[in-house]
Amino acid sequence: MSESQSIVSQWMSEIRDLSIQVDRMRFRRNLERIGEVAALEISKELEYEDCLIQTPMGEKEVSKLKAYPVLATILRAGLPMHQGLLEVFDQSDCGFIAAFRKHHRDGSFEISAEYFTCPPLTNRVLIVADPMLATGASLVVALQGLLKYGQPTKIHIVTAIACTQGIEAVLRHFPDVDIWAGDIDDELTAKGYIVPGLGDAGDLAFGSKEQS
């Protein structure tokens, strides 16, 4: 999110650290806080309008958001970061996507997106949270599905860790998207996992699951 060091660096070190990851609540909270900081940074790029309000002691000219962004996330791993965004943009409408990797015996996989719910997006700012941007395939599928709800004026992606290859893949499909990442790793395994990464964000936040 910034080339300079900040408290985000501390939170990033904690969500990567095997000895700290075992604290599931701390892992979720750190993802929330990264989402909160990303929301603050994105808020600097939104449009504001001046208006006059009445205080108990008089009148004051203030600046207010012209419109809250729409917040969307990919279930289930994106929920903590989504909550962090929602703590800042507390009046936002929200969208949700159920998408997962469907693995094949040869080691390949495809992205299956089985559920979308989203408010109208035309002429609105869209922020999509997904803690891991690996191959970029999930985000591409998610954005393609979300755009059926209208054309946003701007799209922001918020992620904890992004892989260079995934960033390039997303930008090939959506060159005008802004990507806000806590950190960027360069290596991607043949199975599409980020190295060194942090592991499975969904499992670390909510517990392991069985693949159906």
How is the CATH topology named? Rossmann fold
> What is the overall silhouette?
globular
Q: Into which percent range does the helicity of residues fall? A: 25-40%
Strand tally is 11
Compute the number of helices. Answer: 7
The N- to C-terminal Cα distance equals: 36 Å
Succession of helices and strands: HHHEEEHEEEEHEHEEEH
For the record, the count of structural domains works out to: 1
- Mean pLDDT equals 92
Low-pLDDT runs of 5+ residues are: none
Q: What's the CATH first level?
A: Alpha Beta
Radius of gyration in whole Å, from Cα? 18 Å
Strand proportion: 25-35%
What does the largest sheet look like? 7 strands, mixed
CATH architecture: 3-Layer(aba) Sandwich
Task: Map the helices and strands.
Elements: H1 7-16, H2 18-21, H3 24-43, E1 48-55, E2 58-65, E3 70-75, H4 79-88, E4 94-103, E5 109-117, E6 125-129, E7 132-133, H5 137-146, E8 154-163, H6 164-173, E9 178-185, E10 187-188, E11 194-195, H7 201-206
Helix pairs in contact: 1-3, 3-4
Please explain how this structure is put together.
The strands form three sheets. Strands 3, 4, 5, 6, 7, 8 and 9 form a seven-stranded mixed beta sheet that branches. The model has no long low-confidence stretch (mean pLDDT 92). It is globular, with a radius of gyration of 18 Å. The protein is of the alpha/beta class and 212 residues long. It is built from seven helices and eleven strands. Helix content is 33%, strand content 33%. It has a single domain, classed as Rossmann fold. It has helices at residues 7-16, 18-21, 24-43, 79-88, 137-146, 164-173, 201-206; strands spanning 48-55, 58-65, 70-75, 94-103, 109-117, 125-129, 132-133, 154-163, 178-185, 187-188, 194-195.
